[in-house]
Amino acid sequence: MKKQCVDDPEKLNWEQFWQEKLEMKKDKNKNWDKAAPNFHKVSKKDDYQELLFSKLILNKNDTVLDLGCGEGSITLPIAKQVKEVTGIDSSVKMLELLNQRAEKQNITNLHTIHKPLEDITYQELGNYDIVLASRSLNGIKSINQTLKTINQIANKYVFISLFGPNNWKIENEFLKYIGKKPHEFPGYNYIFNILFNMGIYANIERLNIKSYREYNTIQEAMNNGKFRLDLLNTKEKEKLKEYLKKILKKDPQTGKLYNIKDKADWILIWWEK
After folding, report:
1. What are the b/e assignments for 226-236, b being 16+ CB within 10 Å?
2. Which of 193, 195, 236, 227 is nearest to 42 (CA)?
3. What's the pLDDT tens digit per position in 105-162?
4. Count of domains in the chain?
5. What gap in Å lies between CA 222 and CA 225, rounded to an integer?
6. Is the pLDDT of residue 261 over 60?
7. Domain that holds residue 83
């Protein structure tokens, strides 16, 4: 893409910066159908859900649109608090698991739509009181249009969570360890500036995740999804095992392996309509 030369920072094309950063990140396209069966176990390992729910503004008469709903770790608790929820996800397997879990919990106010988030339109979906995009917009290329559509759909509030700057600490250190340059997702500041240029003056809060990840074995640590084993060759996988043996410590009380830097970092961006 062509470099931008402008004399007014408000004229910067932040979507172009966002797209350029995404193009550099070769491992952005994760196979969510493959990840679906174990995603619920991984998502429950920290206090993200509790922190997110402490910030959401919901009441029993609200309708909620959950973008990137996955297998329902956020969607199902919301459904128990509001009038109606629609979950949208690009993974068929995630939606199958969500609907199975909803049926087991006797949740009847949930609807699901199989669709990439980039393809949502106001014409199809109409209005919802709340729009939530929990950990789902980091890899969206057409971010300007998606944010405009989200804002148009929402009647009351929009809540978006994105990777914080410390989210990939040990993963990036591993890439350096094997001589590769880390390519991170675009920062949350890109979204803030895109919204600012739309005339949306959003609130930004850090969800202060306290719990770090714990593993029973080195292999479990390798399989947690963060290291993208599908993108590593045999030699690099051996290097990963060597690296984890070096950095993980054993908790003498629980016997579990951990590293205090191995925890999620999430930023919440939200605004009132």
Report:
1. bbeeeebeeeb
2. 227
3. 999 999 999 999 999 999 999 999 999 999 999 999 999 999 999 999 999 999 999 9
4. 1
5. 7
6. yes
7. 11-168+185-212+264-272
Contact 211, 221 (CB under 8 A): no
SS3 content of the chain, % helix, strand, coil (to 5): 40, 20, 40
Which pLDDT score is estimated for 142? Answer: 95
How many C-beta neighbours within 10 Å does residue 187 have?
17
76: number of Cβ within 10 Å? 20
Using CA atoms of 63, 15, 167, 158 in order, give the dihedral in degrees to the nearest 10.
-20
Give the closest residue to 139 by CA, choosing from 56, 7, 255, 26: 26
Parallel, antiparallel, or unpaired: how do β-strands 128-134 and 63-67 relate?
parallel
Residue 242, in any domain of the structure? no
Alpha carbon distance 143, 122 (integer Å): 15
Which secondary structure element, helix H or strand E, spans residue 100, and what is its range? helix 92-104
Q: How far apart are CA 203 and CA 115, in angstroms?
A: 28
Q: What burial class does residue 257 get, using C-beta atoms within 10 Å of its C-beta: 0-12 exposed, 13-18 middle, 19+ buried?
A: buried
Examine residue 255 and state whether it is found in any structural domain, yes or no: no
Instruction: Please give the model's pTM, rounded to 2 decimal places.
Output: 0.87
Give the CATH number of the domain where residue 85 resides: 3.40.50.150
31 against 16, higher pLDDT = 16
DSSP letter for 7, please. Answer: S
**Model confidence over 208-254: pLDDT tens digits?**
898 888 999 999 999 877 788 888 999 999 999 999 999 999 999 99
Instruction: Report the candidate in 221, 273, 227 with the shortest Cα–Cα distance to residue 246.
Output: 221
Which tokens hold the place of 103? 């049926």
